[in-house]
Amino acid sequence: MTRPLIAILRGIAPDQATEACAALIEAGITTIEVPLNSPDPLRSIQAMAEAHGDRAKIGAGTVLTAGQVDAVADAGGRIIVSPDANPAVIARTVARKLESWPGVFTPTEAFAAIRAGATGLKLFPGSMAGPGGLKAMRAVLPPEIPVYAVGGAGPENFADWIAAGAAGFGLGTALYSPGISTEEIAARAAAIVAAYDAVAA
């Protein structure tokens, strides 16, 4: 079962990336991003894509330039996530036939990203907008465009966000922080998946 959850592995190192990816897939999270401000992120992405690309969608976060899009694509990445809505990054992502998930916070940014060809939108930081902010934006956005809440969205408030129109979630520190074991990643992932399944059914 594929769930609309993106694991954000900020700070993960290549020597743990493949086994962490396997643990996430086993728990039921099959979209995984390695932010580009992690140690040697392209090597982690390539290793995960080679080992698990048939079972998971691997890509990069904190993608800020078109050149970075090319580097991720060349490493085998299939999804590009950004903290901002840069039309050049979106255009290059579309040209490379990858999924584009730019960060937006206002209707202006959201519509600019949609016009540029975004696959979906990342409401960031979610904690500042809150479910109320998403609900207001969702009223005017095209219904077919998914919006994922990132930053401030997690098991304790999945239900509120879903009620406001969130199609999915990006999960960072609730799921991973540098230095934790793969076993801990697996345990956190299982708990998050269970919480999501309980309210998304």
TrEMBL record:
Family matches, as Pfam families: Aldolase
Keywords: Carbohydrate metabolism, Lyase
GO molecular function: lyase activity
Statement: the UniProt record of this protein carries the keyword Lyase: yes
Subunit structure: Homotrimer.
Assigned protein family: Belongs to the KHG/KDPG aldolase family.
The protein's name: 2-dehydro-3-deoxyphosphogalactonate aldolase
Species whose genome carries this gene: Jannaschia seohaensis
